[in-house]
């Protein structure tokens, strides 16, 4: 018998629920929720009916339900379903939509299925952060970027005109990150520091620097980590000295940017520093 996993976690930082279903065959009758649902199919194929329209959804497809959208689904390929979703309360969505569009109204998503969507990997990454109880900065940044794209491309919300450049404020953020990279830094604190909302700060910073604030922080940390590894410091100590939450997080981030693990990188310099054995010369 296939082992089922049914898990849910509430994220107090983002104020949303994350659902994970794995290995299920359950048929869901017609029903609705009073919140937004943004989910994706990891494995399996289902017949979905939403607002009297039928869809066939497969792995990699994203599904979106507005509050009170009636929907039902059932398995049709004989295999089990693996599915992940985040559930967003209307007041949370409304507050974010106000930041993005300047309109104090609940958005409505016209498309219920996004086939083979590029948003599925982004949604999965955010979902894993929530289930693994990761820290707020990368998680909140991923959430804001995901919702911005959904609102901009798939809702009836209209986007505000481009925001000001805020050159001096962005420079302030860069200088703050460069001076405090060993500390825990949050979007809330950067927003307070500059007087710019989190969404506009994230968007303006990314436009100006080409990377997000969290990626900028990670790059600064990795640059300092490389120097410490070159001196022969063990990776676990380097992770602590450069502000990473643990060695595993440090290793994953380092490999993502550099292509090597911290230990592999350190060995390059340790081996070069070791004296070569002298050859004995017999007369």
UniProtKB/TrEMBL annotation:
SUPFAM superfamilies: Homeodomain-like (SSF46689), Regulatory protein AraC (SSF51215). Keywords: DNA-binding, Transcription, Transcription regulation. GO terms for molecular function: DNA-binding transcription factor activity; sequence-specific DNA binding. It comes from Paenibacillus sabinae T27. PROSITE patterns: HTH_ARAC_FAMILY_2. Residues 171-268 form the HTH araC/xylS-type domain. This is DNA-binding domain-containing protein.
